[in-house]
Amino acid sequence: MHTILAKTQLSPNVTRLEVAAPRIAQIRQPGQFVIVHRCAGAERIPLTVADADPAAGSITLVIQAVGKSTRDLVAMEPGEAIQDVAGPLGRPTELITSGHALCVGGGVGTAVVHPIAQGLHRNGARVTSIIGGRSKEWVIFENELRRFGEVVVCTDDGSYGRRGFVTDAAREALAAGGIDVVYAVGPVPMMRAVAELTRPLHVHTIVSLNPVMVDGTGMCGGCRVEVGGETRFACVDGPEFDGHQVDFALLADRLSAYRDFEQKANACAEETCRIGRH
Questions:
Q1: 84 and 109 share a domain?
Q2: pTM, rounded to two decimals
Q3: How far apart are the first and last CA of the chain?
Q4: Going by C-beta distance under 8 Å and a sequence separation of 6 or more, which residues neighbour residue 211?
Q5: Which of 21, 83, 223, 235 is most exposed by smallest CB count within 10 Å?
Q6: What total of structural domains would you count in the chain?
């Protein structure tokens, strides 16, 4: 059992949990993730380790509540315990040790960018982070990322930072030159757009993929993606891959495979809550 030590609301539907997991905290590396199993019968949810405190024996998980399972998870309070947290899983991020890295985070993907920027800074690389949200209240991890370098904040409505998408700011940063590698994490359309920006410039681009995962060991095949014309498994071969080699169209199609099931689960949960209120 893994006790929830602290809980913070980062944006309207994004919650930060500090969870007791001492062994994971000691050995996790940037880019790795855990699979969280709240209780018997619950869905297994893959979550990037956004930060860790080895001394306190805790890890930081950032959860976007978009379906029944994630809503159930963020409804938990400090003192309650998650049944299983398996990890760290996946391959660590390929981090440069010198030069200039551009980290692009869209929405909750900013939480995934955080450990990457942290590792790059620790290695001695220069870090510029571009992060965004629909409006100011949706921007997360800005202060944490400022510890590692320059941060450019974008909002769709211009309520904070500069108006526009993270891809607009990334285009300007790339045009200025001097970028050695790009790390992009966020919605599939955003990562695909960043990869297309860097492709003609021949700037190495690493993206973090989020296909459906079940066991995290490569056995179920649910997280298969196509990279460079070959089938790879995000849980054991990734979750990070060369953005210029990823088949984003196939990834987007597979991400929608369980959409109807999730909508039905949400509807059942809302009906149960309605009946309970009455």
A1: no
A2: 0.87
A3: 34
A4: 222, 223, 224, 225, 234, 251, 254, 255
A5: 83
A6: 2
